[in-house]
Amino acid sequence: MTTKAPLDPQKAVVEVMAEINKDYGPETVVWGSQLRFLDVPRISSGSLALDTALGGGWTVNAWHEIYGDESSGKTTIILKTIATQQAKDPAWTVFWIAAEEFVPEWAQILGCDIERIVVMQTNVLEEAANAAIRILETRTVDALVIDSLPALSPITETEGSMEDQQMGQVARMMGKFFRKAYTAMKRSLVEADRPVTCFMVNQWREKIGFMFGDPRTTPGGRAKNYWYSTRVELKRDEWITEGEKRNQRKVGISIKCLTKKNKSYPPERVASFDFYFDHNELKLPPGNYDPAKELVTLAVYYDVFSVKGSYYHFGEESWHGRAAVEEQLRWDLSLQQRLQGAVLEVTAKGKHPEENRPSRRLVRSKK
Questions:
Q1: What is the pTM of this model?
Q2: Higher per-residue pLDDT: 350 or 162
Q3: Does one domain contain both 309 and 258?
């Protein structure tokens, strides 16, 4: 009786790979070491604190949901992301589906080049979904934004009467949309292929017939949450005000971000930073974060600063009081770059101070 020689496992895998690639196209399956990006490619949000919480920024070739209450900074975060990328690459182009009003003046204040933002105005869900899929298939843009999901309605609702009941239509359609959208945004595993980063803006709503648990939900059903690479919840921590009594005015907001879901980095990370939308005592141009305050908070949190009493030490330099550090950082770009580099170096090594601290929350310091 003859026995078969044992198969070489490595050779068998190679043969199966060759068969799959022959049936479905070259490079359908490849070895992990052949992948074009061994590290997950990302783009910056414009905020070092948010980039750190995300694991280095927004991942490309993925969908990201930004949600929260009204006036919490959702659209602002996306516009600042666009402005940051366009500052690095003037050819960086965005397709913006405006179910809500797109304000060119505000986009420019935040630093965006509106010549590189293609705007489509529609409140019809089917029109927005079909346009998004078509633009993803062309590989002609670097980002796709839908602002926002709650403002989109199925055509049966827009053309029907007020008495019609159409429960769950948006939820059913969103599952189908994401399945088609992910096929459209598929990119080569090994070849250079223009990446795209997609953003969905959403907002809290109250559940129908709520009795127990969290009364809040986001429109679009639960199926959509499966497709997001990250889900970031935004909260307006507090208004930033200046002046006293009758002359008091709001000049900005403190934004708190919580990464509720993250497929490429540990979730439940908190980022907190200040955003100024009006002229202010710090003389920061409207439409900007406060990078000095943000950087000092991170440097203390990641032990880049050596803090002894009220003194802050970094290398051979020292300051008395946090205000002194922030004041120098606002005009000393060299110090800003060195401090930012030190923070990024620590975070790149995966250091998490919460492992030996009583609290893991990144606390925003008081003004």
A1: 0.88
A2: 162
A3: no
